Amino acid sequence: MASSLKAKLKRDGYAFGPMIFEFFSAGMPAIVASTGADFALFDMEHTGLEFETFKHLVSGCRGMGVAPLVRVPAGEYHFIARALDMGAHGVMVPMVGSRAQAEHIAACAHYPPHGRRGAAFGFAHDDYMPGTPVEKMQAARDRTLVIAQIETTEGLDNVEAIAATPGIDVVWPGHFDLTNFMGIPGQFQHPEYLAAIHRIVAAARANEKVAGFGAPDQTFARDYWAYGFRIMSYGWDHGMYRDHLKAGIDTLKGLAAVPGAKEERLRA
Predict the structure, then answer these.
(1) What whole-number distance in Å separates Cα of residue 109 and Cα of residue 225?
(2) Which whole-number Å values give the CA distances from 125 to 15, 68, 139, in the listed order?
(3) CA of 90: how far to CAs of 8, 82, 97, 120, 242, in Å?
(4) What gap in Å lies between CA 107 and CA 22, rounded to an integer?
(5) What gap in Å lies between CA 268 and CA 265, rounded to an integer?
(6) What is the pLDDT of residues 120-151, one digit of tens each?
């Protein structure tokens, strides 16, 4: 297997890419690659993305230098192991609340003796290539990135234990859900929320893990980089398309509103 996103994080200390919620098209991996992104994070929690479509997206990432990651709907074995068997280089799991849950997630993501992932070699996850089981299991362990989302007050209370769990590589706050559970929905400048963010970063650093964040815009990106987040997704595909399209449509409407525009059109 080629050098992984996990190896890049260890080498360079950072990684960036988009989070994809809507445009699960065949060309998306190439579009993402053209931006210089390190990964594409495809969402299955809040979307209609199914595994068969995800498998095609993973295939499109091959040879592009883009690591396919996926947020699974929940931390269950059949979501985590299947996503990895489809070829995901890593999984993000929402609503992680305890060390026991983190241990279960890590076990689902790794082969024995480090976990309980079932073996099937010569399939999509190892690019259908030959090789020994020992080599393939080690390659999978070296590549698989496991992201635990801290989105509840329970998860925040246990973030140090979650970050300390072997097999968990990244702790990543879900900022909307976290503020919701804290009783301060959408208040991203609230002192209690900011204290929680700093606690998550501190937990990651204390356990030699990485803190991750989904930045919706450039202001968030700059702020959270300064806080210490080093693997970051940027924007939401549908939101960026909507915003750029609206800007273009507004420009066209402005042109049409210029006095004399209607008469000019009729003469043309």
Answers:
(1) 28
(2) 21, 11, 10
(3) 13, 11, 19, 17, 28
(4) 30
(5) 5
(6) 898 989 888 999 999 999 999 999 999 999 99
Residues forming a β-bridge with 99:
none
Do 66 and 36 touch, CB atoms closer than 8 A?
no
Of 46, 78, 238, 244, the active-site residue reads 46
* 2 has a pLDDT exceeding 80: no
Which is nearest to 231 in space by CA: 78, 39, 94? 39
DSSP 8-state symbol, 172: E
Residue with tokens 């200390």: 13
| Residue 264 Cα distances to 124, 249, 254, 259, angstroms | 58, 20, 15, 10
Non-local (6+) Cβ contacts of 22 within 8 A are 47, 236, 237, 238, 241
Question: For 17-30, what is each residue's pLDDT tens digit?
Answer: 999 999 999 999 99
DSSP string, 50-109: -HHHHHHHHHHHTTTT-EEEEE-SSS-HHHHHHHHHTT-SEEEES---SHHHHHHHHHHH
* Residues 106, 166 contacting (CB under 8 angstroms): yes
3 state SS of 28: helix
Q: How many angstroms separate the Cα of 174 from the Cα of each of 1, 200, 267?
A: 31, 11, 55
Query: 46 catalytic, yes or no?
Result: yes
The pLDDT tens digits for 79-96 are 999 999 999 999 999 999
Maximum Cα–Cα distance across the chain: 78
pLDDT for the residue numbered 106: 98
Task: Using pLDDT thresholds of 50, 70 and 90, give the confidence band for residue 259.
Answer: confident
